[in-house]
Amino acid sequence: MHFASFPANFAVWTTFLRTGTHPISFESFTLRATGDESDNLRHKVTGGEMAGQDLYQVVSTGRTLHAKGSDQVVRDAAKLFAIPEPQARRLLLKGWVIKDQLASSQALELRAGLQKIGLRVEVCPAGKFDNQQLIARIKVAQRHKARAAKGAPPSDSNSAGRSHENQPKRAPGKRSAATKVEATVTAKASTGGQQFIGDSKPPITSFWGRALVGLLPALVLPVIFMGVAALCLYGAGYALWQIPMAAWQGELSGGVVAFSLLMAACFIFLLSLFVFPYLWFPRNVGPKPSEIPLNRSEGRELFRLFEQLSEKTGLPRVQEVTLSPDAQVFTAPTFAQVMRQELPLNVGLASVASLRGGEGMALVARGLGLYQGKLHGLLAWLVLDGVYRLERMQWALENERSALCTSGEPNRLQKPLHQLLVACGYFLLPLVERLEGLHRTLTKGSAKYLESRADLWAADLIGSEAFAAFAERWHRLIHADLIVAETGREAAALGQCFENIPAAVAWILDNLDEETCKAIELAMGQTSDPWDACEAADLKRVDAVQQRGLDARIRRAFSLQDLFTDFARQAASVSTAGAGPDCQVVENRRLLCASREVAEAVQVLDTYFNRLPPHSFLPLRRSTSEDMQGMDLQTSIDWLRGKLVELREMRGRSEALRQHMAAMQLGVALIRNKVRINPQDYSLKSASLASAQEAVAVKRSELEETEKQLQQIYAVFYQRLCLALVAMPTKERQEARNLLRHLAAYEALATHLERLAGYGRSLALIAQYLSPGLGERELVQKYLALAARELDATFATVESSDLLKAQGLDSALCIKAKREPLQLLPQRHKEALALVQALEARCKYASSVILEHYQVKLATLLNSCLEREQQMQLNPLRLLRTV
User: Fold this and answer.
1) Mind telling me which residue stretches traverse the membrane in this protein (predicted)?
2) Mean predicted confidence (pLDDT) in 334-338
C-alpha cells in the first residue's frame, strides 16, 4: 500500500500529533458501530464528500496492515504518542477515536501517517461518536463480565463458549454440535424424511395491541411522501386543466398555455426530484453484491427445511432464495409479499460455511420473524423499509443518480435534465437526513420491539442458553466478513478476486487472534441499531433473551452445506459472479497471506507444484526406485505431469483422513474414560471400545498408505530440484546448496509440526463438545498437557538450531505462539473453554509460523530452479487448474 500524502518530515508530523490544537485524550476515545456504517464512512472519505464537511475525526478500524504484526504496531504507537503500551494497545480496538476536530487535510495526513506505522484507520465527520455512550457501553460489558465471574445463572455460564445445539446438561458426546468431520457422516442421508425442527411448544406469542400502536408513527414518513406526490399530481393536473378551461371560456392565449405548461413542468420536476427517488431508487440503484438465485433442483433439501420451519413455527414461507458470498442472512420483501406471508430470502454463503446448522437456521428464523404475521409484517415493512429507502435515496443523490437515469450515465437527450436533477438533489440531502432522523425518532420503540421479537424467534430454535455464545460468534462472523470484504476490494484494485469468499470468511473466523476476540467482546457492549436487520445482538439483547428461558426446538446436529447439491461449486460461482471481466481468480491463501514475502512465496510454490504443494515439508530424499533415479530433468517433469490428478486426489484424501482420525481418537479416549458419546459425532459406528479401536486402526493404516504414496510423488519433485541444481553454474549452485542446507534444518521440526496439527484438531473438537459440567475434565487436562509439552518441545528444537534462529524463527514463534506455562483446567465452563481455545490457537499459530518461514526459504530455492529450467528451454509442468 502506498501513502502519497504522508509528510516528508516525520518529526514534524509527530510534533503535530502531540501538540496540535486538539491534543489526544485517551479518555475521550469512543467505539464505533459495525456493519454497513463502515462502508458508508469509507465512501465518504474516498468518494469526494470531504469537501462538504468542515471538521473530521480519525477512527481506528481495529486492524493492522497485512505486513505488520499487532505487537509491532503497539510498540510503534507507544513511541509515537509517548504513552504506555497498555494504552497504545487500545488503538487496536475497533472504533477508538484517535483525534477529533481536524481539518480535511489534517485528517488525511494523520490517516496516512498512522497507516505508515501499520494501523488501519478511517476518517469520519467530527463529533460523530458520543463519549458518554461509550462509557455506558463499557460499564454494561463490565457488569456482564462481573456477573459471570461471580457465579451467574447456568444459562450465562453454559452459553459463554462456542454455540451448541442445546442439550445443556449432557455429556460431550450427546451435545449436538455439527463439525466439518461430522458433516461427511450425517451428510444428505440425514435429510431424507427426518425432522430437524421440533414442535413440542407453541410459537412466539404476538402482541397485536403493541403492533397497532406502532403503525401510526410508522405511517408518517410514507404519508409525507404520498402527500407531496398527491400535491404535485394535483398541481400538475390543475395547471394543465387551465388550458381547456381557458379555451372553453374563450380566453385561451399563448401566455396561458405557456404558464400552464411551466407550472405543470415545475410540479412534475418536484415529483421527479423528491418523490420518485423514494419510491423508485431502493430496488434499482446502488452497489449490488454478487447474487445468484438458487434453483429448487440444486437446493431441494434446503427448501424442504425452510418449509419445515414454516410449518412447525408459523413463520412466513420462503418463496425464493438468493445466494450471496457474504455473511448476511436477511429478507427484503415487497408489501405484497408481506401480505401473502411469502418472502424472498437472501442467504450469505459465508454464514453457511462458518456456522453450524442450528446457528444458520437461527439467522433465517430471525430474518423471517421480523415479518411474521400480516400485522407485524406490515409494521416491520413500514419501520425498516422507510430507513432503507431514505439511505438508498441519499446514496443515489450523492452519486449523481436521478429518476431520469438511475444508472448515472444519461444519453445526449437526457443529459441536460439529468444534470439539473442532480444539481438540485444536493440541496435535498439535508432534508433527507432530517426525514430519516424524524422517522427513527417516531419508530424507535417499534424498531426495538421488532428487534427483540426477532431475537426470540432465533432463540426459539437454538434455546436461550445458547444465545450468548451464538451472539458472540455472530459478531466475530461479521468482523471476519468485513476483513475479507476489505481484502477483496484491495485485490480488485489489482485485478484479482477471491476464488471462494465463503471459505475465506470461515478461515478468518477460525483464526482470529486473542486480542481481536477481546475487542469484539467489548464491542458487544455497544447498543445495536434496531433498524439494521443484520446487526448482531448486543449484551442487552442477549440478557433479554436469556431471561425468557426458551428451550431449543433443534436438538440434533446438521450442516446446511450438506443441503446443497454442490456447495463448493455454488460458493465459487457466487464469489466470482461480481468480479469484473478482467479480474483474475486467485486462491484464497494468496490474498490472505500475512505479508508480501509470503504471498510471493505461495505464488512460486503454486507454479512449481502446479498448485499442489505439500501440506508440510518437502521430503529431501530422492526415490529409491532405480527407474526413477535414471530419469533426467525433462523426463521427471513429464512423469510428474501425468501424476497431477492422482496427487490432487491423494492430498484431499489425506486431509480428510487426518480430520477423521482426530475425531475418532478423541471418541476412543472418551469411551475409555467411560463418557457416554454419540458415535456419529466422532466418525465412529459404535460406542464399543473394541469396535472403536479397530476403526481407528483401519483408518490409521489408510492414512499411512496414502502418505506413503504422497511421499513417493513428492520425492520425484525433490529429484527434479536436484537435477536443476546440478545444471546450475557454480556460483548459483553453491547458493542453492546453502539454501538446501537451511531447508534441511527444518526436518527436525517435521514430527513436531505433525503433532501440533493433530493437537490443534483435537482441541478444536474438545471445544466444540465441552460439556457444561466438565465431566471429561481429566481427559481434557491430559490433552492440554500433551499440547503444551509439544509446544515446549517445538520451542526447544528451534532454539537448539543455529540455522533456524538465524532465520528469525525463534522470535517469530515467541511473538505468535507465546511461551506460557500450562494452567490447570478451571472449574467453570467459560474459563475452561477459553483455556482450551487459547491453547488451540497457540498450536495453530506455531504451525503457521513454521510453515511460512519454511515456504519462503523453499520458494527462494525453487524460483532459482524454475529460472534454470526456463534457460534450458524445458517443457514446463503445465499450470492446470487442478483444485
Assistant:
1) 211-236, 256-281
2) 93
Cα 374 to chain centroid distance, Å, stands at 33
Using the structure block, give the residue that is written with the C-alpha cell 461480481.
578
Q: Which of 303, 293, 369, 379 is nearest to 335 (CA)?
A: 379
Choose among 404, 435, 436, 396: nearest CA to 281.
396
Which pLDDT does position 859 carry in this prediction? 95
End-to-end CA distance of the chain: give it in Å, rounded: 30
Q: What's residue 411's pLDDT?
A: 78
Residues 369, 370, 376, 378, CA torsion sign: negative
Question: Is there a contact between 390 and 443 (Cβ–Cβ < 8 Å)?
Answer: no
**Radius of gyration in angstroms for the set of CA atoms belonging to the chain, rounded to a whole number:** 31
DSSP 67: T
Band the pLDDT of 29: cuts 50, 70, 90.
very low
Strand ordering across the sheet containing 119-125: 97-102, 56-64, 119-125
CA–CA gap between residue 383 and residue 338 (Å, rounded)? 13
Least confident of 314-318, 400-404, 559-563: 400-404
With bands split at pLDDT 50, 70 and 90, how would you rate the model's confidence at 345?
A: very high
525 contacts 137 by C-beta, under 8 angstroms = yes
- 866: which 3 cell numbers? 524454475
Are the C-beta atoms of residues 352 and 561 closer than 8 Å to each other? Answer: yes
What residues are paired with 56 via a beta bridge?
Answer: 102, 125
Q: How many CB atoms are closer than 10 A to CB 597? A: 15
Strands (E), 47-152: 56-64, 97-102, 119-125
CB crowding 69-104: b at 16 or more within 10 Å, else e: bbeebbebbbebbeeeeeebbbbbbbbbbbbbebeb
Q: Quick check: 365 and 315 in contact, CB under 8 A? A: yes
- Tell me how far apart the alpha carbons of residues 548 and 706 are, in angstroms, rounded to a whole number: 52
Q: Exposed (0-12), middle (13-18) or buried (19+): which is 19, by Cβ within 10 Å?
A: exposed
pTM for the predicted model, two decimal places: 0.60
Strands 119-125 and 56-64: antiparallel
Give me the pLDDT at residue 174, please.
30
Which residues, including other chains, have CB under 8 Å from residue 71's CB and lie 6 or more apart? 815
Block residue for cell numbers 467530527: 126
Nearest partner of 458 among 527, 383, 547, 552, judged by Cα: 552
Every domain of the chain and the residues it spans: 10-129, 292-577, 593-871
Q: What is the pLDDT of residues 439-468, one digit of tens each?
A: 999 999 999 999 999 999 999 999 888 899
Q: Name which of 833, 828, 878 is nearest 151 in CA terms.
A: 828
3-state SS, one letter per residue, for 490-549: HHHHCCEEECCHHHHHHHHHHCCCHHHHHHHHHHCCCCCCCCCCCCCCCHHHHHHHHHHC
Residue 872 CA to residue 248 CA, distance in Å, equals 96
pLDDT tens digits, one per residue of 578-607: 777 777 888 787 777 666 678 788 889 988
Buried b (16+ CB within 10 A) or exposed e, 704-718: eebbebbebbbbbbb
**What's the CA gap between 804 and 794, in Å, rounded?**
12
